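Table S2 (text version). Query chain:
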Amino acid sequence: PDVLLFLMQQFPDMVTTQTRDRDRYLPLHTVVHFQAPLENIKLLVQQNPQTLLIGNGNGDIALDLARQQVAATTPASAEPSKASVELELIRYLTTATLHARIIMSELGEAH
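Corresponding structure-token output:
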């Protein structure tokens, strides 16, 4: 997370809802897609929770991407430790997305 934190301090626009790549991925989509450590994902979410509710070019939010990654990369015989890490990511994103939806709804900015 130190490198990510440094980059976010040097380039604060990287966590906005406007920063997207050619696939319309936000930085949050990218770190989830490439299975970055949960600490990095949490850091991006803390900087801009609204990004949890924004879809990529296919309309997938970060939680959708995490579920897709788990389904694509976790065979039934996967190591328990890997499955535990993936389950922790899904739990975190589910809870954080729900909280973001509640907050945005209370602010009258629900999508």
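Notes on Table S2: The chain is about 60% helix and 0% strand. The mean pLDDT is 83.
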